[in-house]
Amino acid sequence: MVWFSGSANSIMPVTFGSVTLSQQPSRPLTSEAAKTLVQAFISCRLDYSNSLLYGVTDNVMRRVQSLQNAAARLITGARRRDHITPVLRRLHWLPVRRRVEFKLACLVRQALCGQMLTYLADNIRLVSEGNRRSLRSSFDNMCVVPRTHISFGDRSFGAAGPRIWNSLPCGLRTLDISYKEFKKLLKTYVCLYRPRAL
To answer: By CB neighbour count within 10 A (0-12 exposed, 13-18 middle, 19+ buried), where does 46 fall?
Structure first.
């Protein structure tokens, strides 16, 4: 857990510094300039290795979420008192916890389709590959979720990825659609139909 809080500590000053500099009245930003700034300094840091944030403490997740909220306010001009959920929806942004789930589901999909490095793809197996018996989960593209004995193991890609994949509706677990279509359907599902993060 120390690494995640240390990582959040190292990211926060740089990115919050970018946000506060751009909010100073002496340097007004156009909407396009704000979007470019957020993409260059904040979004790329949120998306880089964010799957490592799966299962971190709520305190660490709140700190990273506050960074995304500040970026959204910068782009839209929303005040600090304004509720952030409508602002994130207007930008078509997922909250950080859901971004992490989205990325893990995409990584599992790539592993199942053979579009990922083998050292990661070897951690993902379908139930149908390992069973001699005919199980219902064999026909639903369910993944094998390995047993772990510690909570840190539950957060590993080999355990977290299949757990998130198996929680998706059957229509999303099909491997017959393109990756682009899968991402579009997954984002719609995570935004509209997913009541809570895993």
So the answer is: buried
